């Protein structure tokens, strides 16, 4: 026998049971056939965010995204809604039980020191057209459930500090800032790499120019030589009475 439907005292379906007109969200693990569609979904979600942040908020290339699918220990979850005989991807989550990626800055010893066994949330995306309909909350609930059954103690994720909407979303769900690391930048006042324009020296007398002609000879002006300085020699005079 199947499970009995939840009913009220009068035998009508309860308020918690979805009706035929209600859209139902389902979660499943990604399949190879979903990769192209999931990639297009991620580009749609993070298109505007990536224009304003230092770090990419999604895999920076499709090649990297496809590589993730082949990696061990990484969970990729799709959240779908079926409406009017059409199934749409409305959410995506990617998580790992170990620090992954060659360009990851995470310090594994930090978590060991603080007795943390984290589930690392690499990606969390909600369709822009379905914002405010409980999808983000359901994704986090699914990730927390997955962490709990796998023996993890924390969910750990990264979010851009200027993504105020995402920060508000996570703080409302008891996420806290784990470290004080932020991106800092200082403008360096430096000279231009290329020197400014400089005047060419005039060609030498008779020098062959680019067009094959010769540079005109310059008229040499002779400088007048200054007369030799006058030398005055004073002849000493004999004293008076000398020679008498």
Topology:
Blueprint: E1 25-29, H1 35-46, H2 62-70, E2 74-83, E3 86-96, H3 108-113, E4 118-126, H4 135-149, E5 154-157, H5 164-171
Polypeptide structure, described:
β4 (118-126), α4 and β5 (154-157) form a beta-alpha-beta unit. Strands 1-2-3-4-5 form a five-stranded mixed sheet. It has a domain at 25-171: Aminopeptidase. With 244 residues, the protein is an alpha+beta fold. It is 20% helix and 16% strand. The chain is built from five helices and five strands; from the N terminus they run βααββαβαβα.
Features:
244 residues, alpha+beta, Aminopeptidase, five-stranded mixed beta sheet, 5 helices, 5 strands, 20% helix, 16% strand, elongated, disordered N terminus
Considering the protein shown, what is the CATH homologous superfamily of one domain?
A: Gcn5-related N-acetyltransferase (GNAT)
Assembly status: single chain
CATH architecture name of one domain = 3-Layer(aba) Sandwich
Assign the CATH topology of one domain.
Answer: Aminopeptidase
Q: Helical segment tally? A: 5
Inertia-based shape? elongated
User: What is the CA-based Rg, rounded?
Assistant: 41 Å
> Could you list the spans in which at least 5 consecutive residues all have pLDDT below 50?
1-15
Arrangement of strands in the largest sheet: 1-2-3-4-5
Order of helices and strands: EHHEEHEHEH
